[in-house]
Amino acid sequence: MSIADNIISLKKETDSLHVILLAVSKTKPPEDIQQAYDAGQRIFGENQVQELVDKYEKLPQDIQWHLIGHLQSNKVKYIAPFISMIQSVDSLKLLQEINKHALKHDRIIDCLLQIYIADEETKFGLGFDEAIELLRSDDFAELKNIKIRGLMGIATNTDSEKQVKDEYYELKTFYDGIKASFFRKDKTFNVLSMGMSSDYKIAIEQGSNMVRLGSTIFGNRVVKHWKNN
Ligand SMILES: *Cc1c(COP(=O)(O)O)cnc(C)c1O
């Protein structure tokens, strides 16, 4: 199956379930992204700032770019002019930095709080308590140039379907609680980003409305960066 075929069949599947398809193009060359674009895909995700900026400059301007990897505060300035959504917000400090640069560009930047749900040391994200503390804080209330649109989570990389299902169930439950407590009147808090190639069907069953698919669309990743290939 070609990249275009993959996009067409996955879009059909996700559209029918009212789930947004984010194409994760990290490590893949611009030509691959262009093929997905030509098949109708407009939302792409990258996990590294430099790679994202390179691709933004090379590819069609109506692409909506999402950052899905850990973001260092000192790199926010490079993506602030154009980024569509930052899915990997994992601290108040980072959110304040995003707000500062969004203000400079007279923008409001959509963000997701990344919530830690996996049973793995290496994953970034806020714990449930930390997320609540952030949303309750006076410092957060002052930020006018960011908008929290929802939550993102990455499940444990495991063969246990039950564990993945439980983790996504927990995140959906938490999302519903956050929505009811902090965003009751805000219809734009409506994104629950969970599910990757290996587990997106489980994630959708558990209530995801945005899946982040890389290898299912573009094939396995062999190199770290298209420029080093
Ligand atoms: C790489 C990545 C994905 C996509 O992974 P696949 O297994 O290739 O679908 C999704 N989300 C995040 C945060 C990623 O870093």
Automatic annotation (TrEMBL):
> Any idea what this protein is called?
Pyridoxal phosphate homeostasis protein
Q: Which Pfam families match?
A: Ala_racemase_N (PF01168)
Q: Does the keyword Acetylation apply?
A: no
* Gene Ontology molecular-function annotations: pyridoxal phosphate binding
Sorted alphabetically, which Gene3D superfamilies does this protein's record hold?
A: Alanine racemase
Q: Which family does it belong to?
A: Belongs to the pyridoxal phosphate-binding protein YggS/PROSC family.
Free-text function comment from the UniProt entry: Pyridoxal 5'-phosphate (PLP)-binding protein, which is involved in PLP homeostasis.
According to the entry, what is the taxonomic lineage of the organism?
Answer: Bacteria, Pseudomonadati, Bacteroidota, Sphingobacteriia, Sphingobacteriales
Residues bearing N6-(pyridoxal phosphate)lysine are K26
Which UniProt keywords are given for this protein, alphabetically ordered? Pyridoxal phosphate
